[in-house]
Specification:
Elements: E1 4-5, H1 7-21, H2 37-46, H3 56-64, H4 67-79, H5 86-97, E2 100-101, H6 105-134, E3 144-156, E4 160-162, E5 165-167, E6 170-176, E7 182-187, E8 198-211, E9 214-225
């Protein structure tokens, strides 16, 4: 491949490869089934054969639409010069130099995954801050509530044994549509709503808790439906 490349070209190709392959693949041991993203980027930019040759046209199309994201990643790299970590300092130095050599391909490509992770974390923190402002405890202990809510998280918990039956409970987090109040339900059934869906929920108030500053109403004996509760 070319001895040196522009950081923006490397980042833009990385954004495209990640989009086409559905995620970033770091360098691991040689026995791993998936090819590291930085290797695929190097092959793509040099014109070498990809692990899936038929993907080249898809990556070409993704590169065409990756300019804004690539520019944002490069700006993030430069801004990290004052971060103080060796990783961020190296990224800043590479982008400012305007040159990426083969030995630097992995660290330059990894900037895309790091940028996505930081952006996702910032979004989570912003969402938690908004929940802390809006959410209040609802109902009295033992009271039956009915609400329309968005499922904002479904978290698998450790396996539990009920006699001869073993089940994996899930912690389901709801956000009431109108008020923004947060409700949680530890479901022992395998039938739980999908994250991102809007459902009607009926549940009995079990406790009022607080997590990272967010008031949560814990429900039990929940029934839910996307259209109709169908309660008897």
């Amino acid at each position: 491949m070319t001895a040196t490349l522009r950081p923006l070209d490397v980042v833009r190709a990385t954004v495209a490869v990640v989009a086409v392959r559905g995620g970033y693949q770091p360098i691991r041991c040689t026995g791993e089934a998936q090819v590291p993203t930085s290797w695929e980027v190097a092959n793509y930019l040099s014109g070498a054969e990809l692990s899936c040759p038929e993907d080249r046209e898809r990556i070409d199309a993704a590169v065409a639409g990756a300019a804004d994201t690539a520019a944002a990643v490069c700006a993030w790299c430069v801004a990290g010069a004052s971060n103080g970590t060796r990783y961020r300092t190296k990224l800043a130095r590479l982008v400012k130099s305007g040159r990426v050599q083969l030995r630097d391909m992995n660290v330059m490509a990894s900037a895309v995954a790091a940028w996505h992770s930081e952006k996702k974390l910032a979004g989570i923190e912003e969402e938690q801050a908004a929940d802390a402002r809006r959410s209040r405890h609802r109902g009295r202990i033992g009271e039956r509530l009915v609400l329309t809510a968005e499922v904002v998280a479904v978290i698998p918990l450790d396996l539990r044994h009920y006699g001869t039956v073993t089940r994996r409970p899930s912690l389901v987090k709801f956000r009431e549509k109108k008020s923004g109040h947060i409700f949680i339900w530890q479901a022992t059934t395998e039938r739980v709503p999908e994250c991102g869906t809007t459902v009607e929920v009926a549940g009995t108030v079990k406790a009022h808790t607080r997590y990272r500053g967010v008031a949560q109403t814990k429900l039990t004996y929940c029934c839910w439906s996307a259209t109709d509760l169908g309660l008897s």
